[in-house]
Design brief:
The complex is a heterodimer of chains A (about 150) and B (about 400). Chain A has about 150 residues and is of the alpha+beta class. Chain A contains three helices and four strands. Chain A has one domain: Ubiquitin Conjugating Enzyme (Roll). The radius of gyration of chain A is 15 Å and the shape is globular. The model of chain A has no long low-confidence stretch (mean pLDDT about 85). Chain B is mostly helical and about 400 residues long. Chain B is about 60% helix and about 5% strand. Chain B has 15 helices and six strands. In chain B, the strands form two sheets. Chain B has a three-stranded antiparallel β-sheet with strand order 2-1-3. Chain B starts with about 30 loop residues before the first helix and ends with a helix. The chains are: A alpha+beta (about 150), B mainly alpha (about 400). At the A-B interface, helix 1 and strand 1 of A face helix 2 and helix 12 of B. Chain B: One of its GO terms (cellular component) is Rad6-Rad18 complex. Chain B: Keywords: DNA damage, DNA repair, DNA-binding, Metal-binding, Nucleus, Transferase, Ubl conjugation pathway, Zinc, Zinc-finger. Chain B: GO terms for molecular function: single-stranded DNA binding; ubiquitin protein ligase activity; zinc ion binding.
């Protein structure tokens, strides 16, 4: 990993662990490889009846060599993928700040916060309309997909 | 530091972060700490520049980002490279803070803090009350070497302090100190003693002068919201050493953005002009040139610009760092072998280039060793050595030119 990305991710991890070290925190850092290029975070959602607060969602935050100038690959992983109009069954997330509108100012904390609010404010337990099609034919890397962002409500 | 799941990252402690202040006596210092950091690299601002929308980043960070997309990372407003302006005052403030940070952090964590902080506050008030006077005095400092600080109602200790220059060592300090032990020490002219006794005072003196020069700049900036060139001239004149860039900067022009429609031959010519290596594919060359332009322009925003050679070194470092990553996701594993071979070739070339000087030194050493051993070949090796010396001289000449 380039030193810029490495240094930056270390600072982010420190900030994150500083803010979310208590046991009742809704966010927790699960694991990260030695290379620090893939960071796994558990997200608990408490204030929404649609989601079970005891079953955390697992997020993978994979950075590349040009991070933070290029966006990281952010997907939900594991068996428990949240059902949400903007989250596909394969874990890909349709959120403009993760792709076209990514800026280097964003951090792990800010991204996780956005996702938290996205899930907390969700009112319908629905999958995206083109879920089947996208999961079959879409790219394996969400950064390669062409996203159309149209819904500002959730 | 152990993260929630027991992962231990050793060097996490070494990473400086605004949260370091949270355990200190002044947790609010974390706000200052974080505002002096670049939002892109999360490190202290290096050669900060202001965008047209009013946000500040490291020169190199924002240039790297802007060369791909012309928007401000914070507000997404359109921002162009030509709109960036350096902020020298902020540069010196940040430099001061990052240099003194560890010391400050240490002293804020100890119990003495309250006293020293009170003193500092008192000093601040004292100085802010007397900027005008100090300013006037500093201009006529040559003619009258004594200047006084007005009485400050909050400060009882320093009420009668009059700063004066010691006639022997030329250091400014309270006149009571000079009349006391200092002058005797000075007269004894025991340099070590003098150092000990004056060290503290000189430091005080310098901080005070720094302080008010920065203050005057601030007031200057407040009074003139639009800094024209004329203004910046007067600013420089007002003894603002902290905001002076070397004259070299003014003579050097910024490099224009890379014209990607340039033919490969022209591009190569352009790169040769700056001694940039021209190997690799067209895309690699373009990337290298782009990064060099960013580095070069960012260097001109810095308070202490380095010469082009160091920039080339940095460029090389950057490239090896970028290339060191195995392209995991982007390329299929079949091509990997070819690529690693290519990379190794490039790396060995770079290695050779990088250590050229070192190699030539070693060769020289070996030759002189040979000379000692074999007297027969003495004349020959002498000739060679002389040539080497000439070469060496040329090298050092180049160096000095670049440094100037």
């Amino acid at each position: 990993m380039s030193s810029i990305a490495n240094k930056r991710i270390l600072k982010e991890l420190k900030e994150f662990s500083e803010n979310h070290s208590s046991s009742d925190s809704l966010l927790s850092l699960v694991s990260s490889q030695d290379e620090l290029d893939n960071i796994i975070i558990n997200i608990n959602i408490k204030d929404n009846e649609l989601y079970d607060s005891n079953r955390p969602f697992t997020l993978s935050y994979k950075i590349n060599k040009n991070y933070p100038f290029t966006p990281p690959q952010i997907i939900f992983i594991g068996n428990n993928i949240p059902i949400h109009p903007h989250i596909y069954s394969n874990g890909h997330i349709c959120l403009n700040i993760l792709y076209d509108n990514w800026t280097p100012v964003q951090t792990i904390s800010s991204v996780v916060l956005s996702l938290q609010s996205m899930l907390i404010n969700n009112k319908v337990l629905e999958k995206p309309p083109d879920d089947d099609n996208y999961c079959k034919h879409g790219p394996s890397d969400p950064l390669q997909a062409k996203w159309v962002f149209h819904d500002d409500t959730v | 530091m152990a993260l929630s799941n027991g992962i231990v990252i050793d060097n996490l402690e070494d990473i400086s972060d605004p949260s370091d202040w949270s355990t200190s006596k002044f947790p609010n210092l974390s706000q200052l700490d974080s505002s002096l950091r670049c939002q892109i690299c999360k490190d202290f601002l290096k050669a900060p520049v202001l965008t047209s929308c009013g946000h500040t980043f490291c020169s190199i960070c924002i240039r790297r980002f802007i060369s791909d997309s012309n928007k401000c990372p914070i507000c997404l407003e359109e921002t162009y490279e030509s709109g960036l302006r350096k902020v020298l005052l902020l540069d010196s403030i940040t430099k001061w803070f990052s240099n003194n940070r560890s010391e400050l952090l240490k002293s804020v964590k100890i119990d003495q803090v309250n006293d020293s902080q009170d003193e500092d506050d008192a000093n601040c008030e004292l100085i802010s009350n007397n900027i005008q006077i100090l300013d006037n005095d500093s201009k006529s400092a040559d003619s009258s070497k004594i200047f006084t600080i007005n009485e400050s109602p909050n400060n009882t200790e320093k009420k009668d302090d009059v700063l004066a220059e010691c006639p022997i060592c030329g250091v400014f300090m309270p006149i009571t100190d000079i009349q006391g032990t200092h002058i005797e020490n000075c007269l004894k002219s025991n340099p070590e003693d003098m150092k000990k006794s004056t060290q503290k005072v000189t430091r005080n003196g310098s901080t005070i002068s720094q302080f008010f020069s920065e203050r005057t700049n601030k007031t200057l900036q407040k009074s003139s919201s639009h800094i024209t060139q004329q203004n910046s001239l007067t600013q420089n004149e007002s003894s603002a050493q902290s905001q002076l860039q070397p004259k070299l900067v003014k003579t050097k022009q910024r490099l224009a953005n890379l014209d990607t429609s340039l033919s490969t031959i022209k591009l190569r010519e352009k790169m040769n002009l700056f001694n940039i290596p021209t190997q690799g594919t067209r895309i690699q060359m373009e990337q290298r040139m782009k990064e060099f332009i960013n580095l070069y322009n960012a260097n001109l925003d810095s308070m202490n610009p380095v010469n082009d050679r160091i920039l080339l070194d940095r460029l090389q470092k950057w490239e090896t760092l970028i290339n060191n990553i195995k392209p995991k996701h982007t390329t299929p594993p079949i091509n990997a072998d070819e690529q690693t071979i290519k990379r190794q070739k490039i790396e060995s070339k770079e290695w050779n280039n990088k250590n050229k000087d070192h190699f030539s030194d070693l060769i020289k050493q070996a030759r002189s060793n040979m000379k000692k051993q074999k007297n027969k070949v003495k004349t020959d090796s002498d000739n060679i050595e002389r040539d080497d010396d000439k070469e060496h001289e040329q090298f050092s000449d180049n160096d000095t030119e670049l440094l100037l």
